[in-house]
Write a structure and sequence with these properties.
mainly alpha, 76% helix
Length: 404
């Protein structure tokens, strides 16, 4: 009898595990896909992909895409789209170059001014979308053309640079090692980077455990323990390995600190604040959200203002990385940003999507670009492969939505 009861409990646990995997296959499948893609290119490039130097370049090359993907995720969740982010990114970088390089203004107030400029641009577009009900596709398509033209006009069709060294460090600088001897010369292990990685790993595990206990206390825990344990072991191993590799080169890039802080902030806003829940309600059913008392027009306006701010920050980081502003800066960025969100699990119909998914989607694209470039695959084939990956991601979204 005891044996029969045990078997019944085991069957119930297996059924619960199967249902959880089925209901969360998109979220966990994308993380698994990123890991498999990294293993594939690590093998095909004979270990080049995860070398500290290449890993650092991978972070620098995708930092501005990740930053803009955070804002684009909110736009898509709210049921809209923004095609202008690449042009806004290039335009803000051009304005910074003219003010700093040509007119000689100090880089710090210019940085603040450019962030405000990005927010104003986003607010202007959001105003037409939210209060005049012009489709976001049309408004931001117009913005894409306008700000691309303005960037060409401001730069007079020429590249402007170089920037002051402190401004360059926004993208190319590294967090110094607090334990390094002042008289030491040459490259050495960055202990500070490793310690920061260990602390962050411990904090992530702590908050995950605390959240699970809170869910169990209220009877809301759905994730089976074996998946919870495996996920946390995988996350901890990834953080520690990444920190060690970074520490063995130059340490943690400044832009990585900024990017990680923004990821934590937006993950918290979307999952644990009222405004985050309202954005999901807006994208799920705007009419129902409005009838429930949510000021949907104002919320849409704020999401576009936020997107403009992040596009401005990305423009500054991109300009700092290139050490120059070019008329073609930001070209095609909107496609990578939107693709990152959809690959990361955002729904084309709105109301669905997570910040972590957008980050994973951005790095899926980034790792594929980097790996294919190392292998010498032509840009033509790269574009075709990226297009097929995007189509597959959206197809899976529609497939599981119709199956539910």
């Amino acid at each position: 009898m005891a044996q029969q009861t045990l078997t019944t409990e085991e069957q119930a646990q297996q059924g619960s595990l199967g249902r959880f995997i089925k209901n969360n296959i998109r979220e966990y499948g994308m993380l698994l896909s990123l890991i498999l893609i990294m293993i594939f290119f690590q093998f095909m490039t004979n270990g080049t992909l995860l070398k500290p130097l290449n890993l650092t370049n991978l972070i620098l090359q995708n930092s501005y895409i990740v930053i803009m993907a955070l804002g684009m995720m909110l736009i898509i969740v709210a049921g809209h789209i923004d095609l202008s982010v690449g042009s806004v990114c290039g335009f803000v970088g051009a304005v910074a170059a003219v003010l700093i390089v040509k007119l000689g203004f100090h880089w710090l107030p210019v940085t603040f001014l450019c962030l405000v400029l990005g927010a104003v641009i986003g607010a202007a577009q959001g105003y037409f979308v939210a209060f005049w009900k012009i489709p976001s596709f049309i408004v931001t398509l117009a913005g894409m053309l306008v700000f691309k033209g303005l960037a060409l006009w401001i730069l007079a069709g020429q590249s402007v640079g170089p920037f002051p060294v402190p401004f360059q460090r926004m993208s190319s600088g590294f967090l110094p090692d607090l334990f390094a001897a002042a008289e030491a010369t040459g490259q050495q292990f960055n202990l500070t980077a490793l310690l920061i990685g260990l602390v962050v790993t411990a904090l992530v595990i702590y908050f995950n455990v605390r959240e699970r206990r809170a869910q169990q206390a209220h009877g809301l825990a759905e994730e089976p323990f074996v998946i919870f344990l495996g996920r946390n072991i995988l996350v901890a191993a990834g953080f520690v390995l990444f920190s060690y590799l970074m520490a063995s080169y130059k340490g943690l890039p400044n832009v990585l600190i900024v990017m990680f802080a923004l990821i934590v902030l937006y993950a918290f806003v979307t999952s644990s604040t009222t405004i985050g829940r309202r954005i999901y309600a807006l994208g799920g059913n705007e009419k129902a959200a409005r009838l429930s008392g949510i000021k949907t027009n104002r919320l849409t306006f704020y999401t576009f203002m936020n997107m403009g701010l992040l596009a401005g920050l990305a423009g500054l980081i991109f300009a700092a990385r290139l050490n120059t502003a070019t008329p073609k800066a930001g070209l095609g960025f909107e496609l990578d940003v939107i693709a990152a969100c959809f690959i990361g699990g955002a729904s084309a119909s709105g109301g669905v999507g997570k910040v972590v998914g957008a980050v994973i989607g951005a790095f899926v694209m980034g790792v594929m670009n980097n790996g294919m470039s190392i292998l010498g695959i032509g840009i033509d084939l790269q574009q075709m492969i990226k297009g097929l990956v995007l189509l597959a991601a959206v197809f899976l979204d529609v497939y599981y939505k119709n199956k539910a």
